[in-house]
Amino acid sequence: MGILTTNFTVFLNRIKDANRRKKTMKIRKSIHKDYLKNVSKFVGVVLVVLSIFSCKHHEEEYHKVTDKIKELSKDYHGTSITSNKFLEEMNLMEISEGGHTFLIPERKSQIKSYACTECHTDDLNKIKGKDAKKGHWNITLKHANEETMNCLTCHNGDAMDDLKSLTGKKIDFNNSYNLCSQCHTKQFEDWKGGAHGKKIASWAPPRASMTCVNCHNPHSPSFESRWPAKYNTQKIQERK
Ligand code: HEC
Ligand code: HEC
Ligand code: HEC
Ligand code: HEC
């Protein structure tokens, strides 16, 4: 009998133990769940903070690309090398246009029939009145159309040695870019900034740039586009 009761109490105790273990396992599991929750919350917060900080650096600190360039070039105080060696022999002149100061080639000495008044002693309008012969046979105007443009749109009938603006103001032949800029504002803006046209010599200062008439003939300014500048499917077929 004694042995039976002790066996029974051992059995009961085992059951109790098992229950206790189950409970602790449950508690452990719930602790583990809470832990996971907290970890993911923490990671979330860290990510948000990181993204805020990195945003601030890339997007908010600089409102414009130009701001970023300014900021990053704060410690740049120019270079010690110059282009002077390459520019020495050239006949350049300095201009200041809309906050940009740079050199361009002088023009008047390059124009064959300058000064115009060597021949044109009379007002051009008077010449026109007579049964005028055609001078400058080598010049044909291929710029806009006849309704828009004739010789006197740009040349000054009664002061031949200068160009003239659309409102009749004098423009020096050396500053003929001011003539073009009246109608080609976009290219002029680009040119001032250095995005249209070409630099002379190297990248190192001083900046020297070609002027409009170095590349464009004012009387026939457009360039013919050449194959394969435009993809010519006709030619491709012919070749097959
Ligand atoms: C070597 C002499 C000479 C020079 C220099 C000269 N011209 Fe002329 N030009 C003429 C002659 C000749 C005519 C024809 C009209 C005439 O009978 O006088 C003419 C006519 C013109 C006409 C009238 C349009 C035409 O072709 O019928 C324009 C515009 C003109 N010249 C602009 C100029 C400008 C601008 C310059 C300076 C960049 C210049 N010329 C320099 C001789 C000259
Ligand atoms: C869109 C403006 C414009 C028009 C229109 C124009 N010219 Fe000119 N012309 C110029 C400019 C700018 C120059 C100076 C070019 C340079 O610097 O090489 C020039 C230069 C000249 C020269 C000197 C060329 C040389 O190399 O000796 C003559 C001559 C001349 N023009 C005559 C004429 C005649 C004639 C007409 C009409 C048929 C005419 N131009 C129409 C802008 C114009
Ligand atoms: C009075 C206005 C006026 C002036 C001044 C003028 N242009 Fe033009 N230009 C025009 C017009 C209009 C056209 C024709 C545009 C078109 O066909 O889309 C044109 C066409 C051109 C083209 C060809 C564009 C193309 O798409 O093929 C060039 C390059 C050009 N001009 C350069 C010049 C230069 C360089 C000067 C100064 C010497 C000048 N222009 C002065 C009005 C002007
Ligand atoms: C270094 C040479 C160079 C100089 C300097 C230059 N251009 Fe051009 N320009 C070009 C070339 C090349 C093209 C492209 C032609 C093409 O695509 O067919 C062009 C195109 C143009 C066109 C036609 C529209 C376009 O964008 O295709 C205009 C208008 C023009 N230039 C005006 C000007 C004016 C105004 C100036 C002076 C403020 C100037 N250019 C200075 C070389 C030059």
Which key features would you list for this structure?
two-stranded antiparallel ribbon, 2 domains, mainly alpha
What integer is the average pLDDT? 86
* Residues in helices, as a percent range: 40-55%
What can be said about the biggest beta sheet?
Answer: 2 strands, antiparallel
Q: Low-confidence segments, ≥5 residues, pLDDT <50? A: none
Radius of gyration: 41 Å
Number of helices: 9
Distance between the termini: 112 Å
User: Which class do the helix and strand fractions yield?
Assistant: mainly alpha
Structure summary, number of beta strands:
4
Q: Percent of residues in beta strands?
A: 5-15%
Name the ligand types. heme C
User: Which outline best applies?
Assistant: elongated
Give the strand order, joined by hyphens, for the main sheet. Answer: 1-2
- Counting structural domains, the number is 2
Helices and strands, in order, run as: HHHEEHHEEHHHH
Write up what this structure looks like.
This protein is mainly α and 240 residues long. It has two domains: 2-72; 84-215, no CATH class. It is built from nine helices and four strands. It has helices at 2-60, 65-72, 84-87, 124-129, 151-154, 177-180, 185-193, 212-215, 233-239, and strands at residues 92-97, 100-105, 163-164, 170-171. Strands 1-2 form a two-stranded antiparallel sheet. β3 and β4 form a beta hairpin. The longest helix is centred in the first third of the chain and has 59 residues, at 2-60. The termini are far apart. The model has no long low-confidence stretch (mean pLDDT 86). The structure holds heme C (4 copies). Residues 111, 113-114, 116, 118-120, 124, 127, 132-136, 151, 155, 160 line the site of one heme C.
